[in-house]
């Protein structure tokens, strides 16, 4: 009574990884994001009236939100609007941070 012992299947050899030909080039910012935008008077009450790039607008709005403690304590993704932000958000008392960027873009040209 001979029992044939099974050999475990041989694993295929791992394919050799491609060597990095050259290091990644340094990222250059997109010119469209760096273009100074004209700010509406409503938004200017919150962040100032000077033309600044879209990326800086978002940063300044977040600085305002954190300075005035307007993030919802229970759900940090929601922003509770004060009187100035309520005008920017179209009268809404609370918006999500994702909706906020959409509403702010309507005040830039």
TrEMBL record:
Composition bias, Low complexity: 1-23
SUPFAM superfamilies for this protein: SWIB/MDM2 domain (SSF47592)
Pfam families the UniProt entry points to: SWIB
SMART domains per the UniProt record, alphabetical: SWIB
Region listing for Disordered, in residue ranges: 1-32
The DM2 domain, residue ranges: 32-109
Top-level taxon in the UniProt lineage: Bacteria
UniProt-recorded name of the protein: SWIB/MDM2 domain-containing protein
Source species of the chain: Undibacterium rivi
Lineage of origin: Bacteria, Pseudomonadati, Pseudomonadota, Betaproteobacteria, Burkholderiales
